[in-house]
């Protein structure tokens, strides 16, 4: 069963990926592309309509769509605005690795999850970590998910989350 938060995290990851490969994009443009890659910038659909389409059907009321868009923006903006602290934290927990050696997918998933672990105190940290692991399996492979699990568990242990 796909949850609203799973969709939000997936779209946040995809938005961060867009921003990492297309520096000229604004955050809203990256989010729009993540919500629907076939959605063109001159399409008449709103970003709210695009979000409604990607959410589970039973969870796409107007309020949930608005809340989902708010949290999606918060994740993307937060991960970017706090990148220095996030990258320093990740670096401290890499064993025999550096940020520059990480695959882009793994780095972006780590940044997203680390943002939530450090800055979103109301989030259940086990869920944040599990979602990052599942996204790694979706967008990379089993080995990547184990690597991400190890780094995030180390971060969680250090921060007693």
UniProtKB/TrEMBL annotation:
GO BP terms: DNA-templated transcription termination; transcription antitermination
Pfam families in the cross-refs: NusB
Sequence ranges assigned to domain NusB/RsmB/TIM44 in this UniProt record: 42-156
Keywords, sorted A to Z: RNA-binding, Transcription, Transcription antitermination, Transcription regulation
Entry GO CC: cytosol
Molecular function in Gene Ontology: RNA binding
Top-rank lineage group of the source organism: Bacteria
InterPro entries recorded: NusB-like_sf, NusB_fam, NusB_RsmB_TIM44
Protein purpose: Involved in transcription antitermination. Required for transcription of ribosomal RNA (rRNA) genes. Binds specifically to the boxA antiterminator sequence of the ribosomal RNA (rrn) operons.
Family per similarity comment: Belongs to the NusB family.
Protein name: Transcription antitermination protein NusB
Naturally occurring in which organism (per UniProt): Alkalibacterium olivapovliticus
């Amino acid at each position: 069963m796909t949850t609203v938060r799973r969709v939000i995290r997936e779209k946040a990851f995809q938005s961060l990926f867009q921003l990492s490969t297309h520096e000229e994009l604004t955050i809203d443009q990256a989010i729009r592309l993540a919500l629907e890659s076939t959605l063109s910038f001159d399409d008449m659909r709103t970003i709210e309509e695009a979000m409604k389409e990607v959410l589970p059907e039973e969870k796409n009321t107007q309020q949930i769509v608005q809340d989902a868009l708010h949290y999606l923006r918060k994740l993307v903006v937060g991960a970017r605005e706090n990148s220095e602290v996030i990258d320093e934290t990740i670096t401290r927990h890499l064993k025999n690795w550096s940020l520059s050696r990480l695959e882009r997918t793994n780095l972006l998933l780590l940044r997203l999850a680390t943002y939530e672990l450090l800055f979103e105190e109301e989030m259940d940290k086990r869920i944040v970590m599990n979602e990052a692991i599942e996204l790694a399996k979706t967008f990379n492979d089993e080995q990547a998910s184990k690597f991400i699990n190890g780094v995030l568990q180390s971060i969680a242990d250090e921060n007693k989350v």
